[in-house]
């Protein structure tokens, strides 16, 4: 079964974090370390996590995504919840939690290394990942897969306007353009709203702030759901 007409070249916009390589699991490890370090007297770990989620949501509006924003969120959350003054040692430890993420090797998800070259032979691919441009560009470079993509796009946020801007600037036919990713909030719903097709790839560790109910595609567009990257070959 194919998502697109056989033999017709499509444009595939492909997300990076938790679509091509592991990402959120490293943040989850840092958060677990932070919660243990805070060792709150009355709040449960899940309550501390809920407080951190709220702070992260606030920080995104002001500082965007990435490790620096995450570090700010840890500090702010610690200051709000701690029963003791925040010391330089506290600051150093929270910085260590955040910086540890940057040191992680790029771990491609299952099937990515073998599937990308096959997709690149059949279709045009653009890597589209949001976030801190320096951090994201560094991950793309270290991944070793940048050469499969015709272009790299790193918008600050993925909303319908961002998708339309890329499509207009690159003269893409919306009826033959697909967004592929693991985030309902950033990859799927805004792409559908912009008039693209979409492929939702389930990932067990998708960041909670990227969760959302999947929207329905508009008439003439398709939404495909798959469980792993390798299944793309059945559709494209």
Automatic annotation (TrEMBL):
Pfam families linked: Hydrolase
The keyword Ubl conjugation is annotated on this UniProt entry: no
Q: Which UniProt keywords apply?
A: Hydrolase, Magnesium
Instruction: Please give the Gene Ontology molecular function terms for this protein.
Output: hydrolase activity
Protein name, UniProt field: Hydrolase, haloacid dehalogenase family
Q: Which InterPro entries match?
A: HAD-like_hydrolase (IPR051400), HAD-like_sf (IPR036412), HAD_sf (IPR023214), PGP-like_dom2 (IPR023198)
């Amino acid at each position: 079964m194919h998502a697109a007409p056989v033999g017709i070249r499509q444009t595939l916009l492909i997300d990076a974090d938790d679509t091509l390589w592991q990402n959120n699991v490293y943040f989850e490890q840092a958060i677990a370390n932070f919660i243990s370090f805070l060792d709150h007297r009355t709040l449960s770990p899940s309550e501390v996590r809920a407080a951190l989620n709220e702070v992260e949501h606030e920080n995104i509006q002001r500082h965007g995504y990435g490790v620096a924003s995450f570090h700010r969120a840890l500090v702010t959350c610690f200051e709000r919840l701690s029963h003791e003054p925040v010391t330089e040692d506290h600051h150093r430890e929270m910085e260590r939690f955040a910086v540890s993420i940057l040191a992680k090797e790029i771990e491609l998800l299952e099937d990515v290394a073998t599937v990308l070259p096959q997709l690149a032979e059949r279709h045009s691919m653009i890597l589209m990942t949001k976030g801190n441009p320096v951090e994201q560009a560094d991950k793309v470079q270290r991944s070793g897969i940048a050469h499969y993509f015709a272009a790299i796009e790193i918008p600050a946020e993925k909303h319908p306007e961002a998708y339309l801007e890329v499509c207009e600037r690159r003269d893409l036919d919306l009826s033959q353009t697909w967004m592929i990713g693991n985030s309902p909030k950033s990859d799927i719903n805004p792409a559908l709203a912009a008039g693209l097709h979409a492929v939702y790839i389930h990932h067990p560790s998708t960041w909670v702030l990227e969760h959302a109910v999947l929207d329905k595609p508009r008439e003439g567009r398709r939404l495909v759901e798959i469980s792993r990257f390798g299944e793309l070959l059945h559709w494209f």
